Amino acid sequence: MIVASVGNVLVWAVWLGAAFACLGSAVAVVSFTNPFYSALALIGNLGSLAVLYLLLSSEFVAAAQVLVYAGAVMVMFLFVIAYIGPRTESPWTGGPTWQTIGAVLAAGAILVEIVVAIGLKAGGSLSHSHHVDGAFGTPSYIGRLFLTDHLLAFEITSIVLLVAAIGGVILGAHSRTTADEVPSL
Amino acid sequence: MLDNWLPFLIYAIFALIIPASMMWFSFVFATRAHKRTRWRELPFESGVSTGPPRVQRFTVSFYLTAMLFIVFDIEIVFLYPLAVILHQLAWFGFLEFLFFIAILVVAYVYVWRKGALDWQ
Amino acid sequence: MREPWWISLIKAGVIVNLIMLAFAYTTWLERKLLGRMQNRFGPNRAGPYGLLQPFADLIKLVRKESFFPVAARHPLYIAAPIISMFTALAAFAVIPFGAGWQIWHYHVNGEIANVSIALILIFALGSIGVYGAIIGGWASQSKFSLLGSMRTCAQLVSYEVSLALSVLGVVLMGQSLNLVDIVNKQGATIWFFIPQLAGLLVFFFAMIAETSRPPFDLPEADTELVAGYHTEYGGMRWGLFQTAEYINLITLSALAVTLFFAGWHGPYAPLGPLWFLLKVFIFVSVFIWIRASVPRLRYDQLMRFGWKILLPVATINAVVTALLVVWIS
After folding, report:
1. Does C23 reside within a domain?
2. Cβ of C322 under 8 Å from any chain A Cβ?
3. C41 is a domain residue
């Protein structure tokens, strides 16, 4: 922690800024009608999440968040938006459909799950600062977890990546053959 | 841990102020045009152009590249923390490392054989 | 070692201005060297040896008329160059340039921020910098800008994979992602360019592509694309993109020096920052030399080179290094 109260105020200020940026950009994602703007707002959302991770002493997770989600996945999103072409019509018109109801139900379920998980895990106290030492969240700490406690998850990740690569190529190859019939740029 | 990030925060503010002020200069010190002409503000085109481009589609290769980038980027993010402590974990760690890479090599070979690495 | 916040403030102010100065004279150096290599003088009017040329350029760019393309999305059109340059400048924060000093009874660190994820932070900022190009190209609403930005983006992400994988060997040997640790490790053992020659080569090529310099300057292939993603930019706004590119070049050169050539280490330790500067200068000069010597690649050649040559070489290098590291320890 930064010594003296000035430091604490600074941490609070950064936390408040990141939290509000997170909420604001999340609202922006769903309220923009242009998918390009929505994607940009999502990048802002992921970035402010990274700041929140950083404030929780998870340096590595914060950097990975920016590198993978904000840096790689969102590039993919923007490519897809450019590939499909800018759509001007609103993505959601009319009253609630089964999709909307489903989305609200799923979001509610996730909220309940998070509250329950935190409640069970915290066991009454929300502060776990005594668990966190200097090495917490550093790359070597994470690396040790990968190869000891979470070995199976780590190895399965590589298989998931293999599946992702195959899926991407199959989807791409499919649209390649269909694109050949229609002349494009 | 957070006090290591304070200098970064200070520096980042500087790194933001400099381009922002340069952008501000580009408004403040700009020469005023004697005559506003629409032609100057049209998008570049060698000859005929009357405005922004119509909706156009890009080749699927861009999409494929981005997809492969995600796969390999995640691979790298997983390998970095491993690499930091590999010397402590010795042969067990190396075998896990090798297994992880071997599966991705399978993915790589598949992608190569399918021709997704060729730009079209 | 902790330093008071006001030392960090002063240091950040000094360093950021030094980087801007270094950028200004990199453009001068590039024009001068290119000129000499092509049997001409290069800039020689503004000041002795044209030394005031960067400032003349600055004034000229700032005085340019401020205009917007008809269909431009204004806030994004303005934000894009700022994003580009911010990420380029911010990445330098974690690069160590000295051993740290004891001035009176204050300790001054030889780097701006000493964080455990320094290396990933640089790559993360680089991947955010890509958005400068995407947003700039899209917000201009011009055919050439859009196509240029897609190309830039595909190139940058392709080579980012090789760039990040090529330093895995260095991470394995340095046993840290913290650049200060990596530099100290090299000072204590061996400069990593000797055991990591393959890594250095991959890093070198990937770095040229990441800064989109010739022969990998496809984003600005003026014969096909006019000027790529910044076709519709002019004056200082174009200047910001250009600045970002040169600062990226300087930062990545500094990163290469840090990872492979032991950063500030040299024969006489108190001269640390000078050794660092000298090594970066040599790197930058080599890039200018390459620009004068090699013709531009075709886009499919560029992609093939990145995915089919650099990536496998980087992977093999990482596996072999891992084997050796485990064997020795």
Report:
1. no
2. no
3. no
pLDDT value for C74: 77
Please give the single-letter amino acid code of residue C124.
A
Q: Which residues of C touch A63 (CB under 8 A)?
A: 117, 120-121, 124
- Comparing CB atoms, the residue among B67, B93, B110 nearest residue A76 is B67
CA nearest neighbour of C23 among B89, B54, B18, B75: B18
Which residue in the set C15, C235, C300 is minimally distant from B26, CB to CB? Answer: C235
Considering its fold, how many domains does chain C have in total? 1
Phi/psi-derived region of residue C75, left when phi > 0, alpha when psi is between -120 and 50, beta in every other case: alpha
Quote the DSSP letter at residue C45.
S
Q: How many domains does chain B have?
A: 1
> Do A43 and A76 touch, CB atoms closer than 8 A?
no
Three-state DSSP at C110 gives: coil
Local structure of C104: helix, strand or coil: coil
Pairwise CA distance, residues A123 & A118, whole Å: 8
C21 domain residue, yes or no: no
CA separation for the pair A154, A67 (Å, rounded): 18
The answer to whether residue B120 is domain-embedded is no
pTM (predicted TM-score): 0.88
Helix (H, G, I), strand (E, B) or coil at C215: coil
Q: Do A68 and B55 touch (CB under 8 A)?
A: no
pLDDT higher at B55 or C255: C255
B42: domain CATH number is 1.20.58.1610
Label residues C309-324 b or e (16+ Cβ within 10 Å = b): ebbbbbbebbbebbee
Instruction: Give the fold, CATH level 3, of A1-88.
Output: Four Helix Bundle (Hemerythrin (Met), subunit A) (1.20.120)
Domain-wise residue ranges, chain A:
1-88
Most confident of A88-97, A173-182, B75-84: B75-84
Tell me: pLDDT of A88 over 60.
no
Span B21-29, average pLDDT = 87
Answer for the pair A25, A42: CB distance below 8 angstroms, yes or no: yes
Chain B residues near residue C63 by CB distance under 8 angstroms:
29-31
CB contact under 8 A, A139 and B62: no
Does residue C82 surpass a pLDDT of 80? yes
Q: What is the chain A residue with the closest CA to C75? A: A37
The boundaries of the domain holding residue B107 are: 2-113
CB C56 within 8 A of CB C81: no
Q: Phi/psi of residue C106, each to 5°?
A: -110, 145
The per-residue pLDDT for A2 is 42
Please tell me whether residue C106 adopts helix, strand or coil conformation.
Answer: strand
| Domain with C89 in it | 69-106+113-328
Name the nearest CA neighbour of B70 among A78, C86, C129: A78
Per the CB < 8 A criterion, the answer to whether C169 and C196 are in contact is yes
Top-ranked range on mean pLDDT: pick from B46-55, C197-206, C209-218: C197-206
**Contact criterion met (CB < 8 Å) for A138 and C117:** yes
B48 domain-assigned: yes
Q: Nearest to residue C263, comparing CAs of C89, C19, C90, C96?
A: C96
The closest alpha carbon to C291, from C4, C26, C14, belongs to C26
State the ipTM, two decimals. Answer: 0.88
Nearest CA in chain B to C175: B84
Query: CB-based contact (8 Å) between C226 and chain B?
Result: yes
Residue C259 lies in a domain: yes
User: Which one-letter DSSP state was computed for residue B32?
Assistant: P
One-letter identity of residue C267: P
For C4, the token pair is 């008071």
How large is the average pLDDT for residues C264-281? 86
